[in-house]
Amino acid sequence: MALYLLLIGLVAVERLAELTTARRHRAWSLAQGGREYGRGHYPAMVALHTALLVGCVVEPWAADRPFVPVLGWSALALAVAAQALRWWCIATLGPRWNTRVLIVPGLPLVEAGPYRLLRHPNYAAVVVEGFALPLVHSAWLTALGFTVLNLVLLRVRIGCEESALTDGGRLRAPASVPAAGSRR
User: Fold this and answer.
1) Would you say 183 and 164 are in contact if contact means Cβ atoms under 8 Å apart?
2) Distances in Å between the alpha carbon of 127 and those of 14, 49, 154?
3) Which of 11, 47, 74, 175 is the most buried (most CB within 10 A)?
4) Check: CATH 2.30.110.10 for 2-23+34-167?
5) What is the pLDDT of residues 102-160, one digit of tens each?
């Protein structure tokens, strides 16, 4: 359990690094004339991601969840892969990556790195990590709860990004066809 708590602590530190990076990128975007979208859902996203880390700590301890080697090691590999994908997204987008939805007018869609392979690679990383991280120590209720709530939130978030990109002039689609390629 001590090693698992260390892992969750490292992920929490990584999240703080993301927030620091996002704050710096937000300042850059706003200085470039960027506009923020979807402020209303952002507090729910922060709360859900915080609850994930809390659940990862509380459930294994309170419910006396065991470390099941085949599940735990597989889940750890997925969680590490999700982190790698997230940081690939951050590196690819550079100052355009953010935890918020910010659109800088005139910048083209990014179609390099993981964005040439997946439409929403950062969110794929979040989905994988959201069920894998708790399962490292058999916290299946946390994994299930986060996954369900995250899918609801991602529906809102991806819709917000699609709208922002269309409103920001980067995407043009007929009214009856959803806009494609939501990359910040």
Assistant:
1) no
2) 17, 11, 9
3) 11
4) no
5) 999 888 888 999 999 998 999 999 999 999 999 999 999 999 999 999 999 999 999 99
